[in-house]
């Protein structure tokens, strides 16, 4: 089974990040909606498969079974097509470090994708979860409330660190998908990292766009709880994808490791200590 080297994956990620910023607003919105819906369908499948499994008998095996079906969402995103915020946190940073895009491109893309992913997730949560009652009857409601409650009950620091772990694994799944040259290889590359993040219980900002609103539509929790969770998990996912995958691999496998490290350090320092839109800040390519 042929695959791409890490050096080639860096090139693919950078090129993909550049391509994503060149999409029209309409295409970005549509693909973002689809990605949010696909991840939510994967989570809905998780709820429907695991809700009726007896926890006292099955224990963690039920979680492993649910984690085994959850990757369906990212498989749809990568192979059928979609724009997922967490994956873009890695690809766009790689493209930025390669000087193919500007920071303003990143801000624009992430903003549009966040909104469209949220709309797609809400669509599945409301129409499939609430209107059809797929997350609001019997054991499915109990499972939905249990999972959502475990997300929002975590403190800001814990949700933040959990978010790092989630997108580290999610972006590794995307990275491995870029390594493969056929559908079977991409599916295998996606499957195990996503299964791992779900089985461990890490928090993913787009997945939470489905499960927490689904519980809210059922009459539990509130939007303030969700926003608090969103902020912590978003920031954690950003570090997990942009730093631990995009930046680390760019420094390791860029054309010149020393120049790559200097470029990465300058980019980070500019973004933290200068206005992104200043003439000599990180807004320039």
Summarize this entry quickly.
Helices cover 79% and strands 0% of the residues.
Q: Rg, please? A: 19 Å
Distance N to C terminus: 37 Å
* CATH C-level label: Mainly Alpha
Number of domain modules: 1
Structural class call reads mainly alpha
Helix proportion of residues, in percent? Answer: over 70%
Proper CATH architecture: Up-down Bundle
Instruction: Examine the coordinates and then state which fold CATH places here, giving the name of the CATH topology.
Output: Glycerol uptake facilitator protein
Overall geometric form? globular
Chain-averaged pLDDT: 90
* Unreliable runs: 272-285
Annotated CATH homologous superfamily: Glycerol uptake facilitator protein
Percentage beta strand: under 5%
Q: What sequence of helices (H) and strands (E) makes up the elements?
A: HHHHHHHHHHHHH
Largest sheet: none
Count of helical regions? 13
Number of strands: 0
Subcellular location: Membrane
Transmembrane segments: 28-49, 61-85, 106-128, 159-178, 190-220, 226-251
Keywords: Membrane, Transmembrane, Transmembrane helix
Family: Belongs to the FNT transporter (TC 1.A.16) family.
């Amino acid at each position: 089974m042929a695959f791409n080297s890490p050096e080639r994956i860096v090139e693919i990620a950078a090129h993909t990040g550049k391509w994503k910023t060149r999409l029209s607003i309409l295409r970005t919105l549509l693909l973002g909606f689809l990605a949010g819906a696909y991840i939510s369908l994967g989570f809905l499948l998780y709820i429907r498969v695991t809700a009726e499994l007896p926890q006292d008998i099955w224990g963690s095996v039920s979680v492993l079974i649910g984690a085994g079906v959850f990757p369906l969402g990212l498989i749809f995103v990568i192979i059928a097509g979609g724009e997922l915020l967490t994956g873009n946190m890695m690809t766009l940073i790689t493209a930025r470090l390669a000087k193919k895009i500007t920071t303003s491109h990143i801000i624009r893309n992430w903003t549009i994708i966040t909104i469209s992913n949220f709309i797609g997730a809400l669509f599945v949560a409301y129409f499939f979860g609430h209107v059809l009652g797929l997350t609001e009857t019997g054991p499915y409601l109990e499972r939905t409330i249990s999972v959502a409650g475990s997300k929002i009950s975590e403190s800001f620091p814990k949700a933040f660190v959990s978010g790092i772990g989630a997108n580290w694994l999610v972006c590794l799944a995307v990275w491995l998908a870029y390594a493969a040259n056929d559908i079977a290889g991409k599916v295998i590359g996606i499957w195990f990292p996503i299964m791992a993040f779900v089985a461990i219980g890490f928090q993913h900002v787009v997945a939470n766009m489905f499960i927490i609103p689904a519980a809210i539509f059922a009459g539990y929790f509130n939007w303030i709880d969700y926003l608090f969770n969103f902020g912590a998990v978003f920031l954690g996912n950003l570090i997990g994808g942009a730093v631990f995958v995009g930046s680390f691999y760019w420094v390791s496998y860029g054309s010149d490791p020393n120049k790559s490290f200097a470029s990465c350090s300058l980019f980070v320092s500019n973004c933290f200590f200068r206005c992104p839109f200043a003439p000599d800040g990180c807004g320039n390519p």
